[in-house]
Amino acid sequence: MYLLDLKSKIKNEKRDIMKLKKTLTSLVLAAAVATPFVQYSEINAEEKANNHLDYIENTLANHGWDWNGINGYEALDLANVYWNHIFGHALKGEKPKDILTENDFKNEAVVYKYEEGFEAQTGDLFVMENGKNGDGHVGIVVNTLREEDDKTFFVLEQDWLGGGKSKKELARYNTQTYDYEEFGQMYFIRPLK
């Protein structure tokens, strides 16, 4: 008799536990539906810029970067180290100008063609279609505080002076101009994170 009573109590407790599980599941689902979903891409723009700037200043600046092990410290190598830091992979292309045609930036970045009035943001990549030798040029926008002419911005770049192949030109700060007509159209690639 005692054994039958014990079996009955266990059966009732199992039933109560199942009811409790159903109630808890309903509560969790209700809470999930009531909680607004915040996408990662809604990261604060100032926080994003500060994160990029910290990496640029504390890791990239004043070092030589040879991502692919070919031709020394090329401009594209610096861009690849930076992009890999953000997204875990390099950009496609053999030359800086290839970045614009060989990459699908969906879910990673927005590409802007420079037009009058556009202002770059800290952390953008800038790409010159031609650069000094026809291969294009790329670097990282560091600061968008313009000087009096309203056409300049500050960057981190390497191989602008041609010392990359010999590994004498480290990633350095420089000023670039929005309207370098002789170096082709200027584009800006703005990472979404």
From TrEMBL:
Q: Which residues form a coiled coil?
A: none
| InterPro entries linked to this entry | CHAP_dom, Papain-like_cys_pep_sf
Highest taxon of the lineage: Bacteria
Q: Which SUPFAM superfamilies did the record assign?
A: Cysteine proteinases (SSF54001)
User: What positions does the domain Peptidase C51 occupy?
Assistant: 50-190
Mind telling me which PROSITE patterns this protein's record contains?
CHAP
Q: What is this protein called?
A: Peptidase C51 domain-containing protein
